[in-house]
Design a protein that fits this description.
The complex is a heterodimer of chains A (337) and B (218).
Chain A: H1 15-36, H2 40-62, H3 67-71, H4 75-86, H5 93-109, H6 121-132, H7 149-157, H8 171-181, H9 188-192, H10 205-221, H11 228-247, H12 255-259, H13 264-271, H14 282-302, H15 309-326
Helix pairs in contact in A: 1-4, 1-10, 2-4, 2-5, 4-5, 4-6, 5-6, 6-15, 10-13, 11-13, 11-14, 14-15
Chain B: H1 4-17, H2 28-34, H3 38-62, H4 71-93, H5 95-101, H6 112-122, H7 127-157, E1 159-160, E2 174-175, H8 190-217
Classes of the chains: A mainly alpha (337), B mainly alpha (218).
């Protein structure tokens, strides 16, 4: 059946309930992140959430809208969580504040608020920040060095001047450098380095990805999200990464490694599934996800930015109305044109 | 005879009421490309101001001899000649700025504001008014691009008036924020220009709406 017009069975769903479930589903990922990578993420979430709520309140007031229903619907908090989780955890606090302001003020409210924004606010924030502060936005904490919590906090507060001691290249950076600098050398040695490769994906980051996967599957099970966009996204991503890998396993990492590195799982279940900026129809969401997956791999491996999820999602956000137009379902009782 | 009120009206039109960037939103391509610094924006506007003023004057002088049917090619030739003159003058006297602005000086010919004023004003009015109209339009563009370029330079690099030494050698640019200021590269790139231009247009509209409301309540 492919019609999306009423009548529907009513499901007692509201924005607040959906956003609360999305936040709950992010919690395993946050917990694993905080335990394995650094508790600084909790500080970042707090900074982003406080900024998001304050910016939301200020914008609602400026626009003459009632504060309570929009502040308590949780959408600003979801944006804040996604911003904190996609930014490196040890960026200075003002960068998180800047990103959150861009997301809430420019990407959300200037377009008309929740439901009117054509672009995913958290991804706009990521794009704006990585374009504006490329150096700071690539400072990921080193996983091999023992870093104390207090050092991370000092880095976030902007007090610590020795950031280099805390950071190192991410596994994806290492792969990209290997691909760039020495086109002939196989990456097998790079990958076999235990500092980079874990059980299936990037060392340590694979557990965070697995925790996101757990939360995403739970969201699927309670029908907050549909399977189409995540499946399309993962299928597109795996299709291209598998093609590259089969073409030259010496130069490209395996699809499994790529899926469990960077922001792919988070993107598949929490970002391309955004009901506002995605497509309306099921087929549309499959196409949306598939194209975003292909672009994400392309930008990650061949582009100059560390990961491709944010830019691919933004480009597909632009295309979503067109995809919706092309996948308009047959009107009941009418012949397909 | 030209009255003072008439000139004042033309001036107000160019600088505020029909501002080329804020109201007509014409010539956005050079606006996005060159307002990375205050000086660049100002110099491009001054070059455009010269072209709009002189082309208005020339076309207005010749308007009785230009056949209506082929007016566009003739307008283009007149404006292109003036653009070439301005381009060559800048290349010889202000070569550093000329190198910085590059292709955008010759591209003044494609700026819609030049032809909009020729077609809408100079072809129907006397030479003095037309010259004044072109200069007013250029002035409107000048202050907009100076404000926009200033904001972009300040937010993007933390400086103001950088590049002024290539015009007045005894002066140098200001560093407004301390050296620790990281610079928001977004504002150096075209999206930043769009965002700031939108803020300026919104401010103007809010100001007008407030004045209208005040007049209505009076």
């Amino acid at each position: 059946m492919d019609f999306i017009s009423p009548p529907y069975l009513s499901r007692n769903a509201n924005v607040q309930g959906i956003m609360a479930r999305v936040l709950f589903a992010l919690l395993p990922g946050v917990a694993v992140y905080a335990c394995l990578i650094g508790p600084a993420i909790l500080l970042q979430i707090a900074i982003a959430s406080a900024t998001a709520l304050a910016a939301e309140a200020a914008m609602l007031k400026l626009r003459g809208k009632p504060l309570r229903p929009c502040l308590t619907d949780g959408s600003a908090l979801v944006t804040a969580f996604l911003i904190a989780l996609t930014f490196p955890p040890i960026v200075p606090w003002w960068l998180t504040v800047f990103g959150t302001l861009v997301a809430i003020v420019i990407a959300k409210h200037l377009y008309g608020g929740l439901g009117q924004n054509p672009f995913n606010p958290a991804m706009v924030a990521f794009a704006a920040c990585i374009v504006s502060f490329p150096a700071l936005m690539s400072q990921w904490p080193s996983l091999t060095l023992e870093t104390r919590f207090i050092d991370q906090i000092l880095a976030v507060l902007g007090v610590s001047r020795e950031l280099d001691a805390l950071t190192s290249a991410t596994p994806l950076d290492v792969l990209k450098t290997a691909l760039r600098l020495a086109p002939g050398t196989p990456i097998a040695e790079t990958l076999s380095d235990a500092k980079i490769h874990g059980a299936v994906g990037s060392r340590v980051w694979e557990y965070v990805a697995a925790a996101y996967l757990l939360g995403g599957l739970w969201l699927l099970r309670c029908k907050v999200i549909r399977w189409h966009a995540p499946t399309g996204f993962l299928a597109g991503f795996v299709a291209l990464s598998a093609a590259c890998w089969l073409f030259d396993p010496g130069r490209f990492a395996s699809p499994l490694f790529h899926v469990f590195s960077g922001g792919v799982v988070l993107g598949a279940f929490f970002i391309v599934t955004d009901p506002v900026t995605g497509c309306a129809s099921e087929k549309g969401n499959l196409i949306f996800g598939f194209a975003a997956g292909i672009l994400a791999y392309t930008i990650r491996v061949f582009g100059s930015y560390p990961d491709g999820v944010a830019f691919s999602v933004l480009i597909l956000n632009l295309c979503a109305p067109l995809v919706d137009l092309m996948t308009r379902p047959r009107v009941f009782g009418m012949k397909k044109k | 005879m030209i009255t003072r009120a008439e000139l004042r009206e033309i001036f107000a039109n160019g600088v505020w009421k029909q501002n080329s960037s804020l109201v007509q939103t014409l010539g956005l391509c050079p606006l996005l490309a060159v307002t990375t610094t205050l000086i660049n924006g100002a110099m491009l506007s001054l070059a455009t101001l010269l072209v709009t003023g002189l082309s208005g004057f020339t076309v207005s002088c010749l308007r009785k001899f230009i056949p209506y049917e082929i007016r566009m090619p003739i307008f283009i030739m007149i404006a292109a000649t003036l653009v070439t003159i301005v381009d060559q003058c800048m290349a010889s006297w202000l070569s550093e700025i000329h190198n910085l602005l590059g292709i955008f000086i010759p591209l003044i010919i494609t700026n819609c504001i030049v032809f909009a004023r020729i077609e809408a004003f100079a072809a129907k009015n006397g030479p003095i008014q037309s010259f004044f109209d072109g200069v007013s339009m250029g002035t409107g563009m000048l202050w907009t691009l100076v404000v926009l370029g200033g904001m972009r330079e300040l937010l993007g690099n933390g400086t103001l008036f950088s590049g002024i030494e290539s015009i007045v050698p005894s002066l140098s640019g200001l560093r407004v924020f301390s050296d620790g200021y990281p610079g928001i590269t977004l504002f150096v790139l075209p999206p930043g220009a769009f965002i700031l231009l939108a803020c300026m247009i919104a401010t103007k509209n809010a100001f007008l709406a407030r004045r209208k409301a005040a007049e209505a309540s009076r």
